[in-house]
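User: Can you help me understand a structure? I only have the sequence.
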Amino acid sequence: MGDEDAPPATAGPSDKQKRPSYFNPKPPAIVPALIACHPHAPIVVVAIGAALRVLNYETGEALLLSDATIPRRHREAIRAIAFHPSGALFASGGDDKLVKVWDTATWTCRKTVSGPKKISSVVFSADARWLCFSDKYGIVHVTSTGGPGDAVDSAEAGIKQLLAHCSSIITSLAMSPDGRFIASADRDYKLRVSVFPATPLAGAPEIQSFCLGHTSYLTAALFLPGGLLVSAGGDGTLRLWQPQMGELLQTLRLAGEQEIAPVESVMSLDEGDSASESSGRAIVALALAPDGVSLAAALEGCSEVVFVHMVGEPPALVVAQRLSLGGRAPPTSLAFDAGGRVWRVAGAVQEIETGDAVVTEEALAAKEAAAAAAAASAAVQVELLQRRETGVSARERSAEPVGHGAGEEAASAAAVYEVGELPGGSAAQGVLEGSQADAQAAAEAAKAATEAMRNLLGKRMYTEAEKIDRKRNRNDQKPPRGKS
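Assistant: Let's start by predicting it. Here is the structure, written out as tokens:
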């Protein structure tokens, strides 16, 4: 076939109409509201969009942030927040690629650094000298936490690559209490435990173990005080690990068996490559209590909080209570405060993405203003779950660990939780929820956030017909222009 017979360079309208749906542009990013509590002081932080709302819940006072670093504030949605275990430092990171370290005594930003990609998780080293943060490209970076007069600007100064995950989104970071290990959970079902080095800026080349067993993406990882590791995933399970050996000690299903049936589907363009992923209710939030043995978890789309207790020797996780929230919005994030109460937040905001073309001062100011307006109008609902010291009825314990014989009697000593009054009343509620306190809107936003998480982290499923069609449309499968 000669050049005169070559196919047209562009497709006509009829071809575009036949374009498969999986080639459509991605939907707008929906970012969930997050919550974190100071481990020792009466302070709670809600992150919604690009805003941080900080409340002293004893006084009802909104704590104002002071930021003289450059940039002075987040310009896109915050994806990760964390306190250091001492409570002296707080970190935030987001889709603007910025990571900020805050001094919680004055709520002054002591350092801002910029990563190469959007931030997905943050964690402090045990000694508070270092902050580790991951991005959506699968890299974990490290920077010093700085000090008075040590703030740096948004250039990629003061950060080094600590470890990498080969282009898999890292969903959670955890540091062992003794500071020896850092755990990184990812989209590709892996939980990696690495030795945290004495000189982090030189990298962390030593891998301690891989904890393998989840059948879907991981959503959270937490070290327990005794050194064990707990992970949560899109397969609806909590898993207990011995991290030094990567040994799976227990699997506890929080979603019912009927909700996590494996689905066999093609997930790759490589011939003959297929895989299975458990589809069902993901665990979207996980928090550890100050006692170090109690956990609170939230399931995708469920108006309830599941309380899990670690009992016995060898240790085992058992469900102590399933607390119904009475149809309220499903939680997008959970946190225990210093008194052992659980703070629940539900809500989300649609991300405002302007790309990397923003360069002028005026454009940056407009972007900050738009992000602030989006956060101010976001639908957020905050609620407190308080302890009621009594035994747990058999009706409230409705799940058994898989492959473990822990009895219900041990769990009956755990505290029972109930929905309580928010400290500080309506004033505190106004600080944390902002001007948009619409319960229905918060529920819809929370639902959109969990769907967005599944779209981002879940493996794309293709039928055989779609697989063949995608191969046909790949550029490397098409003949060069003018050739037959």
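Now, to help you interpret it: The first strand starts at residue 30 and ends at 32. The chain has one domain: 45-351+382-401+414-432+439-477. Let me know which part you'd like to focus on.
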